[in-house]
Every structure is written in C-alpha cells, then in structure tokens.
Amino acid sequence: MRIYTARGDTGQTDLLGERVEKDDPRIDLIGSLDETTSTIGLGRAQAQVHGGNARLKTVQRDLYQIMAELAFTDATRPDSLHFSAERTSWLEVEVDRLSESIQLPREFVLPGETVAGAALDVARTVTRRAEREAVALTRSGVVGNTEIVRYLNRLSSLLFMAARAEDLMNTEHIELAKERPS
Q1: pTM above the 0.90 mark?
Q2: What is the tally of structural domains in the chain?
Q3: Which of the 8 DSSP states describes residue 114?
Q4: CATH of the domain at 147
Q5: Using CB atoms within 10 A of its CB, is residue 26 exposed (0-12), middle (13-18) or buried (19+)?
Q6: Which residues are within 8 A (CB) of 22 and not within 5 positions of it... i.e. 6 or more apart?
Q7: Average pLDDT of the residues of the chain
Q8: What does the alpha-carbon distance between residue 5 and residue 76 come to, in Å, rounded to a whole number?
Q9: 27 vs 168: CA distance, rounded Å
Q10: Please, what sign has the CA dihedral across residues 65, 125, 34, 55?
Q11: Cα 156 to chain center, whole Å?
C-alpha cells in the first residue's frame, strides 16, 4: 500500500472543499497545531505526575478537533465541527487543579530541571506560536471561531503548570535519593 499520492508535488494541498498552496496561512496553523500535539506527546511519554497522561491525551484530542475544524472551508464545514467554549472551560479547571498543588518560584523558571518538564516547556512554546498564528487568522477573518485562540491561550498555561509539576515531582525524588545514606 502506498502512503503517498504525489498530489502535493506541485506545492498544493487540500483543505476540505478547496485546493490551496502549502504555504497558505491556514496550512501553517494546522502544521503548528500538529507540531504542538507531537511535542505534547513527547512530554506525555515521559510524564510521571499522576493524571498527567490522561490530561495530556485529552488535550491532544482537543487539538485534533481544532485541526479538523480548520481543515474545512466555511462552505463545507459540518456544524458539528465547531470547537466549543466547553473545552476551554475544562482546560481552566485543569489549570486551576494543578495550580492548587504547585507553588511557583519567584524567579523566572529555567526549563530543563527534568526531561519531562523540558519537553512540556517546548510544547508550551510551540503552542504559543500556534496561538500567534491563530490570532492573525482570526483578526483577518480567516478563522471565525475565537474559541480556538482562547483555548490555545489556556493551553500554554496548562503546559507551563504541567511542566512545573513534573519538575517538582522529579526533583523531590532526586533530592530524596541524594539524602539517603550510602
């Protein structure tokens, strides 16, 4: 079975309802969201905080819903593919849950205390890029659903807190290991 079609060899690709150039800003945003979910996957693969894996999987599924909405033209998009405010509300609850158990340091956080935390920090920065692209497309009227920007804004907060949770949990384990008598 061939997995390539060669249809994109001329620099075009398909939105559902329209053929566009591969450097179309909508394709850029979908690509950034794809990169976001992949970097979240890297963090998820290393995450050790209880409940973190399930939370991050849910976020990845939400990002696929956003990509599905963006992949359609306005004329062909089914009503069921409208990303809802309910998903942003869920994200806010998750950020609040993490925030209750983590005391942030007073200084800037330097990513890299743990591999899982660093991977989630990379995912946060990729999310911020996708958010900037979504803002530009929303302002220009290409993306009509402002909930996408709100979700990405909250997602960067979730990823920041998830990274701190990983750092805190793993740093405490490292410190405990160092304190044990040899």
Answers
A1: no
A2: 1
A3: S
A4: 1.20.1200.10
A5: middle
A6: 8, 11, 12, 13
A7: 87
A8: 23
A9: 37
A10: negative
A11: 7
